[in-house]
Amino acid sequence: MSQAVAARVHESEREHATELQYEGLVTRGIAFAIDAAIIDLVAIVVAGAVALALSVLSVSKDSLDTILIAVGGALFLAWSVGYFVTFWSTTGQTPGSRLMRITVRGADDGSILRPRRAAVRFVGLVLAAIPLLAGFLPILFDERRRGLHDMLAGTVVVEAPQLSRGSAPSPPRTPRR
Amino acid sequence: MTQSFYNEGQRLLGATMRLGGTVGLAAIRPAAGAVEAAVRLERAARSAATRRLGDAALTALDAALLSPLAEEAVDRAMASGLVRHAVGRAFEGPLIDVIAEDLVRYAVVERVVDQLLADGLVERMVGRALDGPELERVVGTVLDSPAIERLIGQTIESRLADQAVAQLLDSEELWLLVEEIAQSPAVTDAITQQGFGFADEVAGGMRARSRNADAWLERAARRALRRSPR
Q1: Chain B contact for A18, CB < 8 A?
Q2: Contact A25 B191 (CB under 8 A)
Q3: Tell me, what's the ipTM?
């Protein structure tokens, strides 16, 4: 009996995964803004905590400003890279993506990215932002709504299946080439 | 010489006896034939008389059964204590045991059930019972009775129920089934719909608007560059 039920469940899953929609610039921009807000909020809280600790300790700020800025910048970069690479290579969704119900997948097979590919995508994201965000404009014209960073890393951003809390995301249908 | 005289005499005596037997049989044969004919005639007459008597008895029985007096006689017999007494004696005696043994021996119940099933009578009866208000009334009465309440309570508190539940929980098939159901998109969708509440409602609205904005922005960009719409 359980096998019959399982067959029906999997059939329903297949029906569930038939639609695939590439996500556009606005949706992705909102997701990125949410992620940026989270990153900045955490960074501000940490920086505030460090500043409070330093204010208690009688350390001359002038002598440490340069060092603190350098260390803080390095930590912020590491935190940002770690944030995106970790989420893209584990669930395919950052918290902002989760909220907007979008996910980053490999363009060829629809799989979740490996960490190296996620890191390449992050580098591509920075490169796309440098020329006054011009690297994101291809999203408006590309058939699969890919930006520069997507093209560099070979990824697409698609609508994520609706997930229950705590369940692992199932891979979406293989994107068309 | 004496011996030869004895043998001759014995042979003569045997021949005389055979001759006597033959003559005797020839004399008796007509009498035996007459006796045999008389016996056949007597049997035929008795058979005809019995048949006529039986026919007459059946005719009389039919006339008696068709008579209005027969019903009256039956009513009076049933009203009297005689029938009750007869039935009581029959139940006291070995009659019930004999009937029960015969029912089992000749598979009467099985044959009757088979016939009922073959005729579709059971289906009609069940359909009638389910469609009618009687079943609902009976079920209501049964459920309202304190005896049923006590019985259900005892069943739930019994060790048998605990064992059944324990066996069910130990069943691998059960957990496989639960896992499959829990992973089904219908269930996850339902949980998601129930779980996220207001925040998800806001996010859903935002998603819908953002996708509309995507479409609008792309149309505008493609129009500006004079590209065909997606």
Answers
A1: no
A2: no
A3: 0.73
Q: Would the CB atoms of A13 and B184 count as touching at under 8 Å? A: yes
Distance CA A71, CA A52 (A): 17
Q: Burial level of A50, CB count in 10 A (0-12/13-18/19+)?
A: middle
User: Residues with Cβ < 8 Å from A152, sequence gap 6 or more?
Assistant: A120, A121, A123, A124, A127
pLDDT in tens, A58-100: 766 667 788 888 999 999 999 999 999 999 999 999 999 999 9
Q: How confident is the model at residue A162 (pLDDT cuts 50, 70, 90)?
A: low
How much is the average pLDDT of B183-209? 79
Position A40 pLDDT exceeds 60: yes
**Closest Cα in chain A, distance from residue B185 (Å):** 6
pTM for this one?
0.48
Chain A partners within 8 Å of B213 (Cβ): 24, 26-27
Tokens 């005596």, residue?
A: B13
Of all residues in chain B, the one with the smallest CA distance to A4 is B177
Report the residue of chain A nearest B217, measured CA to CA.
Answer: A140
